[in-house]
Design a protein that fits this description.
Layout lengths: L1 E5 L13 E4 L6 E4 L13 E3 L4 E4 L1 E4 L15 E4 L5 E9 L2 E12 L7 H6 L7 E2 L15 H9 L5 H8 L4 H19 L3 E12 L5 E9 L6 E5 L2 E2 L10 E6 L2 E6 L8 E7 L2 E8 L6 E3 L4 E4 L3 E8 L7 E4 L2 E2 L6 E5 L5 E6 L8 E7 L2 E10 L17 E3 L3 H49 L14 E3 L4 E4 L4 E7 L7 E4 L2 E2 L7 E6 L2 E6 L8 E7 L2 E10 L6 H7 L3 E4 L4 E6 L7 E6 L2 E2 L6 E5 L3 E6 L8 E9 L2 E12 L6 E9 L4 E6 L11 E8 L6 E5 L5 E4 L7 E10 L2 E2 L3 E2 L3 E2 L13 E5 L4 E4 L13 E8 L6 E2 L11 E4 L7 E10 L2 E5 L6 E2 L5 E5 L7 E5 L4 E10 L3 E6 L2 E2 L5 E4 L3 E6 L8 E8 L4 E11 L8 E4 L6 E5 L12 E8 ...
Parallel strand pairs: 5-9, 20-27, 21-28, 30-37, 38-45, 64-71, 82-89
Antiparallel strand pairs: 1-8, 2-3, 3-9, 4-10, 6-7, 8-9, 11-12, 12-16, 13-14, 13-17, 15-16, 17-18, 19-21, 21-25, 22-23, 22-26, 24-25, 26-27, 29-31, 31-35, 32-33, 32-36, 34-35, 36-37, 39-43, 40-41, 40-44, 42-43, 44-45, 46-47, 47-50, 48-49, 48-51, 51-52, 51-53, 51-54, 55-56, 56-59, 57-58, 57-60, ...
Length: 1147
């Protein structure tokens, strides 16, 4: 139902209900759900529009609404409106699943004159409420405004509303203000859950040092609440460390978020959330950055540094550099340098290699520029294969023109910044004046409608902007600023609890509109302390720290950094003045190593200056001179350069001979390791012909480190002295080795050839290159061979086709002959001395002991008589082996054919017969050894059936089956029998015994009243014969002796054991028949050892028939077997022997 209450009244909750807060799509509507889960198709109430707040005069009122029959108004529908009814009202829409609440304000104005009754009755006020009754009802769609628009407005000043609306294309300014007011109320209600107080919201700003920051003051209800920062809706990590990319620093109630090293990717909407509630939003936009000077193509030599420089239109702490589409970072390979004004950006590619060639680019957001890096290889041939020294020169760079453009842009940026500051100050003053005018108009309006009752609590004067901690350098001005909500309130300043008064010119208290300032000029150390500003009972505090770090005068620093250039042996002095709080620590460094006083180092120190004196400086002292001054407030450094000039060191050898012919000697050398600080102007040469005492002066040849001497005699040797000359003098001389004009330099002999492998038609050799190459590259090799016993060497390869690799396969050999080999190297001068001859080696295959190569070799083959039999064996052996076949240890019969090759042998029996059965052995033998293998061939035929079958009953319930042997029994020692049984009840044939090597078997479990038939089959390796079938056997009734006899008898054997012979690995079946009353206990023994508990033997006793089965007979089963039967009346035993026939073996 609908219900209207005053805003201060609370809606009770029924027992057992929950209160789950939900958000409506209509701003200002609060929904509370009473159940944990909503049933399917059900929903909590909601409003489609908020009620309209009204201000009316006294009179009668009627309430209107589209209510269903189940809803009602709590108040009367027609009542008299008086001044006491002015208030904020709530409207409730309620069902069993929840309640929706919305508020509206009613202001009643007292009338100042009388009207007619008709007019008073006609004046009404309408609260129109719309309840969502049809979830599927369609509403007119309006274009949605980006949510970023509202987030920016709720954190922006009113003066920025117009620019934000223009940015997002919003033209309904009045509608925007109305919706913004509703959203602010809703946002404030959400913020009240986590924040007690929120003020001093400063939007994000780009600072002069290239960083950006925004700040706000807030008091959290729960100090442990989580604070999150989002950029364009994506959470970004931050740290309290100011050196990381994003930092959030808290000082008291002030939170400052900073972005270090702003780059174009940092632009976007930043939002602060506390426990999921949005607190503050600010939009960060970077001015478009353009390239005033783009990077240019650079051509650098190998191992030289390459420099790319550009100038941008706005200061940036960092831009992105890429090389061959790969991002580049500061490191050992690249230096990324940014000027102090952040306009000049430089990339240095250190120690260029040929692989560094490619396109390099500088990127600032949407703009970029690129250029080529071309790396030229060292063209000197003698430097190939040698590590090149790194060069100290640099290629590329912008030069003076680039610095001029950067200076002009710096002045322009500074001017624009000052104009923006002045404009912002003017806007602030105008805003303050407008606020004052608005306040005056508001006061005047309030005076006119003083009879209107408002429920408003004046908070009094409060601080809208608190004090911030300030750090000032001694001698500079410090300014403490706060802001009040009223211009008319005076503020009182305190320092460390004592009131501050303007007793001197250095203290200035300023009242600037709502701003209150305390300016301390020419700060001194005693000005440090805690300052407090109080106004109308409110106060704000901050600390002022006055520091006195070491400082250097700019003119003194400019003079200090100028390089000091002296000659060797002279003195060098460095002096620098400074100011700062004492005590100060002063340190001097030379190339990073701290200088301490000694014979040639003097250091003077005082509170205002320091002087370094270096006496009798040597060339090695050249380098960076740095002074470091430190006190408790900070550290400062200054760097200068010391250059000590000296004569160069001698040129470096050995010389590289470019050409040595009958007409000239052309050679080069390396430049001095140290040129003494001055460039080489000339090289001075003199020459001596070997064998003479005089030296001929060749004079100065210029700064290039090479010389071509054409005044030579063919075959003569010369020695040269080389000196380097600079402005500081002439170096010591470097003497070359003797160089002969016109003599060829042949390579030395290679290593002795090594025999890798030898065969009958090929011998493989390998060797190493000579240690002396003759000063040039090896072009190839020649190989010579010689037979053992001969004095003549013959060439293996054609002389015009040298062998490129250091290995070769010699195929021009004759099997059985012994050879030796030697190798000579070839360079540009020709072939050098041959190597030491190799060892003698025979041209023959290596000796290999015979080995069978078949992965699976058969060792048993069954053949049907009349068929042909083939047995193959593959092998490898060297030399070729002799092959021999044996049958049962004797040579094979002539009718057996044997075919041999170098790697295989085949035995074939054209038409096999039974007497061909046996074990066939192959013997493969050569000089190294022999190998044998055997295979058993069994030639047989389909078995013939046994003779007639007879049946006999020896023990009740059993039948003894016997038969005449098969005619093949004497021909096949692997022949055996199988018995099957058929009875009149089951009517199927069942196997009752198999692998029988005798001609008799006792079948048990013969049931009275059934007819039985038995079949006996002959089996061998070829298969099964036709059966021999017995007559029908029927046991009609149980003998009377078994039904009526009740006397006790001792045990006795009615059927004794009989002797057994069984081939190895076959099944053996023993049985006997025992009678006696009471039933005898039967025990089996082998060699007097009981077998009843041995699991290798299967023992049964059924109806007096005692049987034992050995499933797989082995040699260990041979022996004497005994059966002992005993009862209370006596004991009887029966014995037999088992002979296991093993496989036949042949030598």
């Amino acid at each position: 139902m609908f219900k209207i209450r005053r805003a201060k009244e609370e809606e009770p909750t029924a027992p057992g209900q929950v209160r789950i807060k939900k958000k409506s799509r209509v701003p200002g509507v609060m929904i509370t759900q009473y159940v944990e889960e909503l049933p399917e198709g059900m929903a909590t109430p909601d409003f489609t529009r908020k009620p309209i707040s009204l201000t009316i005069q006294e009179g009668k009122v009627k309430y209107h609404g589209n209510l269903q029959s189940s809803h009602y108004w709590q108040t009367n529908t027609d009542c008299e409106i008086t001044m006491t009814m002015s208030d904020t009202y709530k409207c409730y829409a309620k069902n069993e699943y929840g309640i929706a609440v919305v508020t509206a304000t009613l202001n009643i104005i007292e009338v100042g004159f009388k009207k007619t009754q008709a007019l008073q009755e006609a004046r009404t006020v309408c609260f129109v409420f719309f309840r969502r009754v049809d979830p599927e009802a369609k509403e007119e769609k309006k274009p949605e405004i980006d949510e970023r628009f509202w987030e920016l407005l709720m954190s922006a000043d009113k003066k920025d509303y117009e620019s934000i609306c223009a940015q997002y294309g919003v033209t309904d300014f009045r509608g925007m203000l109305k919706k913004l007011s509703e959203r602010k109320i809703e946002r404030e209600q959400e913020q009240e859950r986590v924040v007690e107080r929120l003020c001093n919201l400063k939007p994000i700003e780009l600072k002069d040092d290239g960083d950006a920051e925004f700040e706000l003051e807030m008091s959290l209800k729960d100090p442990t609440s989580k604070i999150f920062i989002y950029k364009d809706g994506v959470m970004i990590p931050y740290d309290v460390d100011a050196e990381v990319k994003h930092g959030l620093k808290q000082v008291g109630k002030k939170f400052v978020f900073s972005i270090n090293g702003v780059d174009p990717d940092d632009a976007g909407l930043y939002q602060v959330e506390v426990d999921g509630v949005k607190i503050f939003s600010t939009d960060f936009k970077l001015p478009p950055v353009e390239f005033l000077v783009k990077i240019q193509d650079v051509k650098a030599e190998e191992r030289e540094d390459a420099v790319f420089e550009c100038v941008i239109s706005h200061p940036l702490k960092k831009i992105n550099w890429t090389g061959k589409n790969v991002p580049l970072e500061q490191g050992d390979k690249y230096d990324i340098i940014v000027s102090e004004d952040m306009l000049i950006h430089t990339l240095v590619v250190k120690d260029c290699k040929l692989l560094d060639k490619g396109i390099y680019a500088a990127v600032t957001g949407q703009n970029c520029c690129n250029a080529w890096l071309i790396v030229e290889a060292d063209s000197e041939p003698n430097s190939q294969g040698k590590k090149k020294a790194r060069k100290t020169t640099r290629a590329g760079g912008g030069g003076a023109e680039l610095l001029k453009i950067a200076e002009e842009q710096r002045a322009k940026v500074q001017k624009d910044r000052e104009e923006l500051i002045a404009k912002a100050k003017a806007e602030a003053e105008a805003a303050a004046a407008a606020a004052a005018a608005a306040a005056a108009e508001k006061a005047e309006a309030e005076a006119k409608v003083s009879n209107v009752r408002y429920f408003h609590l004046d908070p009094g004067v409060y601080f809208t902007g608190g004090l911030s901690d300030v750090t000032a350098i001694i001698g500079t001005d410090a300014e403490l600023v706060c802001r009040l909500s009223s211009e008319d309130c005076d503020a009182v300043w305190y320092k460390d609890g004592n009131e501050v008064r303007m007793t001197t010119d250095d203290i200035c208290i300023v009242k600037d509109g709502t701003y209150r300032k305390l300016i301390i000029k020419n700060c001194k150390e005693e000005d440090s302390g805690k300052y407090r500003c109080e106004a109308d009972g409110r106060k704000t505090e901050a600390a002022l720290s006055v520091e006195d770090p070491p400082r250097i005068n700019a003119d003194d620093l400019t003079e200090f950094i100028k390089p000091v250039i002296i000659k060797t042996g002279k003195d060098a002095a460095f002096k620098l003045s400074f100011v700062g709080r004492e005590p100060m620590k002063i340190q001097w460094y030379n190339e990073g190593e701290e200088l301490l006083e000694d014979t040639h180092i003097k250091i003077e120190k005082s509170s205002s200056h320091s002087r370094l004196l270096l006496t009798k400086c040597q060339r090695k002292t050249t380098g960076e001179i740095k002074i470091k001054i430190k006190n408790e407030c900070g550290t400062t450094e200054a760097i200068s350069q010391l250059v000590v000039l000296d004569k160069p060191t001698p040129p470096l050898g050995p010389v590289d001979i470019i050409e040595s012919s009958a007409a000239c000697i052309d050679f080069k050398w390396r430049t001095p390791k140290d040129n003494g600080g001055s460039p080489i102007t000339d090289y001075i040469l003199e020459r001596q012909q070997i064998g003479r005492n005089s030296w001929k002066k060749l004079g100065k040849i210029g700064p290039e480190a090479k010389y071509r001497d054409t005044d030579v005699d063919h075959g003569r040797k010369y020695c040269y002295h080389i000196r380097a000359e600079t402005d500081q003098g002439i170096s010591e001389m470097m003497e070359t080795d003797d160089i002969q004009a016109g003599t060829k330099a042949y390579p030395g002999p290679p290593s002795t050839p090594k025999i890798i492998s030898a065969f009958k038609d090929c011998i493989n050799l390998a060797w190493s290159a000579p240690t002396n190459t003759g000063g040039t590259n090896i072009l190839g090799y020649n190989i010579e061979k010689r037979k053992n016993g001969s004095n003549l060497w013959g060439h293996v390869n054609p002389l015009d086709e040298p062998i490129r690799e250091k290995k070769y396969a010699v195929k021009d050999v004759v099997e059985g002959f012994e050879y030796e080999f030697r190798v000579s190297a070839i360079n540009i001068s020709g072939a050098g001395e041959p190597s030491t001859p190799s060892e003698f080696v025979f041209a023959r295959d290596p000796k290999i002991r015979p080995q069978f190569t078949d992965k699976k070799m058969k060792n048993f083959v069954v053949m049907k008589a009349g068929n042909s039999a083939r047995i193959n064996f593959n092998f490898k052996a060297s030399p070729i082996p002799a092959v021999k076949w044996l049958k049962d240890g004797h040579p094979v019969p002539k009718r057996v054919t044997v075919s041999n090759t170098d790697t295989s042998s085949q035995l074939m029996i054209p038409s096999s017969e039974r007497h061909d059965t046996g074990i066939y052995t192959i013997i493969v033998k050569n000089l190294v050894g022999q190998e044998t293998s055997s295979v058993e061939i069994r030639v047989t035929d389909d078995p013939k059936p046994p003779g007639p079958v007879e049946l006999e009953e020896n023990v009740s319930g059993t039948v003894t089956v016997s038969w005449t042997p098969s005619p093949d029994e004497t021909k096949d020692d692997r022949l055996h029998y199988m018995i099957t049984k058929h009875d009149s009840v089951k009517r199927n044939w069942q196997t009752v015994a198999d692998h029988l090597f005798n001609n008799k078997f006792t079948v048990i479990n013969i049931m009275p009243g059934r007819e039985y038939k038995f079949r006996v089959y002959t089996k061998n390796d070829m298969g099964l014969s036709k059966p021999s079938e017995s007559a029908i056997w029927e046991l009609s009734k149980i003998p009377l002796s078994q039904n009526n006899y009740s006397g006790k008898t001792p045990p006795s054997f009615s059927v004794p054991l009989k002797m057994h012979k069984s081939p190895e690995s076959y099944e053996c079946y023993m049985s006997c028949a025992v009678t006696g009353n009471p039933k005898p206990y039967v025990t089996w023994y082998r060699n007097n050892i009981s077998l009843n508990t041995n699991t290798n033997y299967y023992i049964t006793n059924t109806c007096g028939v005692c049987s034992m089965v050995i499933l797989k007979v082995g040699p260990k089963d041979s022996g004497d077997y005994t059966v002992i039967a005993e009862n209370t009346l006596g004991r009887v035993e029966c014995s037999t022997k088992l002979v296991v026939e093993g496989k036949k073996t042949f030598k």
